[in-house]
Specification:
By secondary structure, the protein is mostly helical. The chain is globular.
C-alpha cells in the first residue's frame, strides 16, 4: 500500500495542494454529465481527475471527496432532467472501484516520477495499465451488472472494447498530459522565482 507521504510527485505546500484540488474539482464540474456547468465541447475529465488527484494530492480524504462530488453531479443532472436514469443502476458502485484503480495508478506513478522527460514512458505504461483496469471494472460492471443488457456475454463485452476503449484512453491521456504540462510549467516558474529571489 502506498502512503501519501511516500510519494515523490505530490506538491509540497498546502497552498499548492489546495489550488490543485480546487482546479481538479472545477475540471470535473465543468466536464461531467449534462448539468448546468457543462462545457459541451469537452469530454468528461473524471477519469483523469482521479488519476491526477492520486498522483498530486496527499490527503487520503481527497478520493472520497471527489467521488461524492462526481455522484452529486450525476444526481443533479438526473434531478434537472438533463440525463435519464440509464447509467444509474446497482452497477453504478463499480465506478468507486474503477476510480479507485485510477487513484492508485496515480499514487503508483507519483513514486516513479522525476521532473525529467525520462518519466514519460513510465507515465504512459502506468496510464495504459490503469486505464485498462478501470475500463474493465466500470464498463464491464455496467455491461454485466446493470440489467440493461439482458443478453450480456463475455464475447459481447469484448466486441465493445475496440469501439469504446480507444476514445476513453485518448480522453484520459489528453487530460493527464495537459495536467502534467501545467505541473511542469508551475515547477519551472517556481524554480525561476526562487532563483531570482536568491540572486
Amino acid at each position: 500500500m502506498l502512503a501519501p507521504s511516500d510519494a515523490v510527485l505530490p506538491l509540497r505546500s498546502r497552498n499548492a495542494q489546495l489550488l490543485t484540488a480546487a482546479a481538479l474539482a472545477a475540471l470535473m464540474i465543468c466536464t461531467r454529465g449534462q448539468h448546468f456547468a457543462t462545457v459541451d465541447a469537452l469530454p468528461s475529465a473524471s477519469w483523469a481527475v482521479f488519476f491526477l488527484a492520486g498522483a498530486m494530492l496527499r490527503p487520503g480524504w481527497a478520493f472520497p471527496a471527489l467521488f461524492v462530488l462526481s455522484s452529486l453531479l450525476d444526481l443533479a443532472s438526473l434531478a434537472l432532467g438533463r440525463v435519464t436514469d440509464w447509467c444509474l443502476s446497482p452497477a453504478y458502485w463499480a465506478l468507486a472501484l474503477a476510480y479507485g484503480s485510477l487513484w492508485w495508478g496515480g499514487r503508483l506513478y507519483s513514486r516513479m516520477h522525476r521532473d525529467h522527460w525520462s518519466s514519460v514512458p513510465r507515465l504512459v505504461l502506468v496510464l495504459l495499465a490503469t486505464s485498462a483496469v478501470a475500463y474493465v471494472i466500470s464498463k464491464g460492471g455496467f455491461y454485466f451488472l446493470s440489467g440493461r443488457y439482458p443478453d450480456a456475454s463475455l464475447a459481447g463485452f469484448i466486441d465493445r472494447v475496440p469501439r469504446y476503449y480507444p476514445r476513453t484512453l485518448g480522453t484520459l491521456a489528453g487530460y493527464v498530459g495537459a495536467g502534467f504540462a501545467v505541473y511542469a510549467i508551475g515547477r519551472l516558474v517556481g524554480s525561476r522565482q526562487r532563483a531570482g529571489a536568491r540572486a
